[in-house]
Amino acid sequence: ERLLKVGSIVEAKYPELLANPVVVKKKNGKWRVCIDFTDLNKACPKDSFPIPHIDRLVEATAGNELLTFMDAFSGYNQIKMNPDDREK
What we know:
Layout: H1 2-5, E1 21-25, E2 31-35, H2 38-43, H3 54-60, H4 72-75
Antiparallel strand pairs: 1-2
Protein name: Transposon Ty3-I Gag-Pol polyprotein
Organism: Noccaea caerulescens
Domain Reverse transcriptase: 24-87
């Protein structure tokens, strides 16, 4: 509700692609929500930019005097999607 209220997400009525959630009971009696994204992942274009290995990133910092850190977690929802890129 909070993300909807601030405009970070919008309601999508009748989407062509979706992944249905399934509620599964765990061994301890609690419930867990599971989502199978297999079909949705097959429909998505492949990313030509693989994620680098962490050891290579750490090695690349050797010898530098100044390092910076970006908080990608907090910034993720601040990137607006172009309306032309939404489902058609």
